[in-house]
């Protein structure tokens, strides 16, 4: 077992507790870890492998724990040894993940999807007792994702899986941890089953809170009425206003006091206050998860140009003598374009080339690449912190509506990769962009944030250019399909253009012809 015993954790620079008195056990098999960006998913993995120590409590696990981070900037440790190992099982593992054993000298030329396969291959090769994966399908195309899923299904240790990939979570996980600082909730079942339990519990909690509020309101009215009755009784039993010679009236008050009848209203009022106190405590305990508003777009004009980007027929170099051939391509002010294709086929190369050819004003363009360097992420957050109060308010309103809590983000040393994407998009939104281009927009995003992003981009008033392997996401927000395919008998690739017809394909296959 991997055990958390009364674990509390708070970053030194933060005033908020991220995890509080968490006790849980993770048996062999895969446990999904789900929660908003900034909720502590990566922190939980780092605590599990010992890279972070709890503020209080203990984390215990038998055997070696190995953590695979989200980022793929650097090759993993033992990368060279993994490529040089000639053991049959290692060769089979490299084959299952389609890892080129001669690729060690060209890490910088590998796509992020190819790097991710290598990173996880090296981890599986080491056969750790505890394997901690942070967004393993980032940058991965459909074919590679199927290979990766097969390799992870064969793992027999204790696995924690942070992922936005709903299908992967459903295929691998038999339980899920839902993080909502400072609490952690363990649900049995795969993601779909566990999420349904979360939803039902949320509905029940909301109903319990509504009933508790109604009970408090009723008791408040009753308590006020009893208090008025007690005050009237107090006035009746007071001798203050009686004439000193009214011996009969004074005698009646004395008899009522001896019998205790005159204090009945006061006792009832006191009992009612006690019931009201208990009802208020029940209301305070009936907590529900806060629902945040969605909708991020500020009214703004579209570009008045006929065409934002135009590229005549030609080809682009991909390295090692390979080329990407393309027909005439253009993007108009309201076009919503999806770019798909296998890893290494030239998607990012094409989009970078297109972005270099656009001539819109800088403030009207939002370009978010696959990966943002760590130092750049810190600078983006520092820039947001240093904005004027009004600009910072608008910026973090958008961040909140994309599913992240501004107070946690402002206190962090560095934003998570998902939070960096939200900050970049928020900076663009407040400037009313004419073009938004994103390379793998759902990478590093948590599931609630992906749903927020889907909703935001579905309502986007400007042009979209999105590179993604997430077909569920693309079906919601795009209309035109630019599919990059391998040319038969050649190392070159070619762009095919077709309308995106809702569900044009299964997996990552060629769409129907235009």
Largest sheet: number of strands, sense, barrel closure: 8 strands, mixed
CATH topology value of the largest domain = Rossmann fold
Give the radius of gyration: 31 Å
pLDDT < 50 runs, ≥5 residues? 258-262, 502-514
Distance between the termini: 54 Å
CATH class of the largest domain: Alpha Beta
Overall 3D form: globular
Structural class by helix and strand composition? alpha/beta
Structurally, how many domains make up the residues?
Answer: 3
Plain-language structure description:
- With 514 residues, this protein is an alpha/beta fold.
- The protein contains 16 helices and 19 strands.
- Helix 15 (447-458) links the parallel strand 16 and strand 17 (463-467).
- Helix 4 packs parallel to helix 5 (142-153).
- The two termini are 54 Å apart.
């Amino acid at each position: 077992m991997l055990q958390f015993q009364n674990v509390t954790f708070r970053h030194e620079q933060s005033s908020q507790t991220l995890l509080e008195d968490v006790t849980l056990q993770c048996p062999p098999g895969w446990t999904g870890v789900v929660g908003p960006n900034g909720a502590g998913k990566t922190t939980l993995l780092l605590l599990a492998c010992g890279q972070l120590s709890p503020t209080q409590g203990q984390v215990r696990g038998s055997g070696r724990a190995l953590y695979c981070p989200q980022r793929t900037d650097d090759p993993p440790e033992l990368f060279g040894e993994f490529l040089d190992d000639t053991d049959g099982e290692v060769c089979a593992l490299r084959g299952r993940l389609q890892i080129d054993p001669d690729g060690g000298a060209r890490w910088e030329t590998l796509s992020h999807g190819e790097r991710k396969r290598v990173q996880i291959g090296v981890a599986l090769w080491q056969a750790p007792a505890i394997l901690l994966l942070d967004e393993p399908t980032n940058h991965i195309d459909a074919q590679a994702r199927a290979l990766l899923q097969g390799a992870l299904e064969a793992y027999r240790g204790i696995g924690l899986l942070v992922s936005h990939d709903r299908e992967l979570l459903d295929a691998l996980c038999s339980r899920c941890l839902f993080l909502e600082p400072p609490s952690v909730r363990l649900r049995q079942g795969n993601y779909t089953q566990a999420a349904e339990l979360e939803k039902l519990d949320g509905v029940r909690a909301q109903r319990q809170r509504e009933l508790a509020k109604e009970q408090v309101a009723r008791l408040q009215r009753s308590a006020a009425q009893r208090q008025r009755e007690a005050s009237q009784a107090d006035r009746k039993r007071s001798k203050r206003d009686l004439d000193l010679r009214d011996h009969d009236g004074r005698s009646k008050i004395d008899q009522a006091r001896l019998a205790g009848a005159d204090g009945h209203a006061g006792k009832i009022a006191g009992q009612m206050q006690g019931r009201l106190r208990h009802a208020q405590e029940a209301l305070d305990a009936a907590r529900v998860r806060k629902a945040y508003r969605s909708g991020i777009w500020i009214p703004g004009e579209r570009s008045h140009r006929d065409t934002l980007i135009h590229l005549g027929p030609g080809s682009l170099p991909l390295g090692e003598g390979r080329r990407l051939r393309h027909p005439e391509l253009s993007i108009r002010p309201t076009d919503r374009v999806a770019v798909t294709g296998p890893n290494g086929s030239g998607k990012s190369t094409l989009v970078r080339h297109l972005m270099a050819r656009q001539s819109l004003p800088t403030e009207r363009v939002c370009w978010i690449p696959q990966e943002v360097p760590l130092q750049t992420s810190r600078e983006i957050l520092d820039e947001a912190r240093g904005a004027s109060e009004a600009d910072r308010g608008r910026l973090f309103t958008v961040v909140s509506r994309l599913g992240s809590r501004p107070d946690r983000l402002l206190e962090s040393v560095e934003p998570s990769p998902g939070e960096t994407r939200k900050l970049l998009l928020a900076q663009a939104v407040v400037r009313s962009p004419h073009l938004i281009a994103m390379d793998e927009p759902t990478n590093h995003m948590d599931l609630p944030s992906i749903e927020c992003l889907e909703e935001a981009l579905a309502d986007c008033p400007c042009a979209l250019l999105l590179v993604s392997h997430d077909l569920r996401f693309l079906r919601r927000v795009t209309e035109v399909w630019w599919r990059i395919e391998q040319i038969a008998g050649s190392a070159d690739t070619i762009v095919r253009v077709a309308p995106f017809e809702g569900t044009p394909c299964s997996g990552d296959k060629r769409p129907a012809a235009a």
